[in-house]
Amino acid sequence: MRALLQRVTSASVTVNDKVTGQIEQGLLILLGIEEADGEEDIDWLCNKIANMRIFSDEDGKMNHSVMDVDGGLLVVSQFTLFASTKKGNRPGFTRSAKPPISIPLYEQFVKKLSFTALRQVETGEFGADMQVALVNDGPVTIWVDSKQKE
């Protein structure tokens, strides 16, 4: 399971001209799911995201988590995080989990993140053509992969 975290001052997701999720200060989380992912990946990644200290303290150092700053969480499914670009110029997505596997894992991830971070999690719409708007704060963008824990 892969997550691309972006520290934002605001972010929103729109589907068919309707906003499905939006936050002010917090984290926009682009989430990729592969066939090999399971509950252990969800638990580890949610714990990592909720506690990652990437928000500035009074001295301007990254010492606060999204929970410390009472920040929002916006999760957007993004199968392209597992794109393979080794051959040719058209990316392949064979490592991305198909909907029968990825949808339940995505829903479980959102539920677990809400429980772990003690706050509601805003979302996009799984599998939809989404427009994501954000103001990256810093910029701060962090790549986290549950298969690369060490």
TrEMBL record:
EC category name: hydrolase
Which SUPFAM superfamilies does the annotation name? DTD-like
Q: Which GO terms describe its cellular component?
A: cytoplasm
Q: Which segments does the entry list as coiled coil?
A: none
Q: Which UniProt keywords apply?
A: Cytoplasm, Hydrolase, RNA-binding, tRNA-binding
Output one GO BP term. Answer: D-amino acid catabolic process
Q: Motif Gly-cisPro motif, important for rejection of L-amino acids residues? A: 138-139
Q: Name one Pfam family in it.
A: Tyr_Deacylase
Write down the EC number.
3.1.1.96, 3.1.1.-
Free-text note regarding domains: A Gly-cisPro motif from one monomer fits into the active site of the other monomer to allow specific chiral rejection of L-amino acids.
Q: What PANTHER family does the record point to?
A: D-AMINOACYL-TRNA DEACYLASE 1 (PTHR10472:SF5), D-TYROSYL-TRNA TYR DEACYLASE (PTHR10472)
Give the family, as the similarity comment puts it.
Belongs to the DTD family.
- Protein name, as recorded: D-aminoacyl-tRNA deacylase
